[in-house]
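Lab notebook page, bench 4
Experiment: in silico fold of construct C2
Operator: M.H.
Input chain length: 319 residues
Purpose: comparison with the prior construct
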Amino acid sequence: MDVLPGRAAAALARVDVPWPARWDELGSVVADLSALVRSGPGARVVAQELAEVLVAAGPGGHRAALAGLVDRVLDLHAVACLAEPPDGRELATWLLRLQTGFVEPPEVRLAPYASSLGRDGLAFYRAEVVARFERLPVIGFGETGRYDRERWALLRVMEELAEFTGDVDLQVLVLARDLSSGWHYLQVATVLRDAGRLEEALEWVGRGLAATGGRGAATRLVDLGVDECLRAGWVERAVELRWRAFRTHPALETYLRLRGTAAGAGVWPSVREDVVARLRDGADEVLRQVVDAELGAVSGGPVPEWLQRLRAELASRES
């Protein structure tokens, strides 16, 4: 082991020495590394070894302080890689091992390493991370996810990779590994919507609605789908989403949302009869709420024939 990593390892091992003195020694080691990096080639391997020594000591009682030192060492290592370019695949392999092979791995930023990794190294890094991440089980709807050390580590690596590359497919892959609630489906649909991939976003809306059974995040899912369908001019699909939501969960709220969308599209009269039939087959309380809401909307004016029939239906049930 090089003298600088050796000094750091010795300082960390001397538990009989007060922490302030050991901290000063570790700070001195990092300062010497900085000088070594400025002096020219030869610092890259030393920085790698020093980073591993500090990361391995992370689970101790000075985790936060050591994490700060690791960040400084990694910044210096990235600079050293520019002065002494490594093989891109070897660098990618080391960065992955550093982030997944320790109990308390650091969070590595890819931007400082982009030039040193090169196209081939970054492609290798991406392929390795994705292959390992895809082997993780998907947390299904209603399940309680088990986030062990490996899953947390790979999740952090994938999130950083997705952010650095701006790759929407990577973002979706990350989010779709945890589908334990409707909000996770909404996150995926939102990412795809923001990327302009509307058909895929609507597919995830449908999957989320099927999983939630019309509850929880279902309202937000439907709202997203309807807004995007209307923006794209897909009126029938927007109305169908509202109609599906109402059938799945008949309530005053879903009724009013359906009526609003259908009326705005000019198709409420043709949709209304099916809606009324569904109300008659449903709970009396929902029927009463709808009748009261509609009567309130006419504000003392003439009551439409369809509403008169619905009011008479409700009166006969209550008599």
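Observations: The mean pLDDT is 93. The longest helix spans residues 19-39.
Next step: discuss at group meeting.
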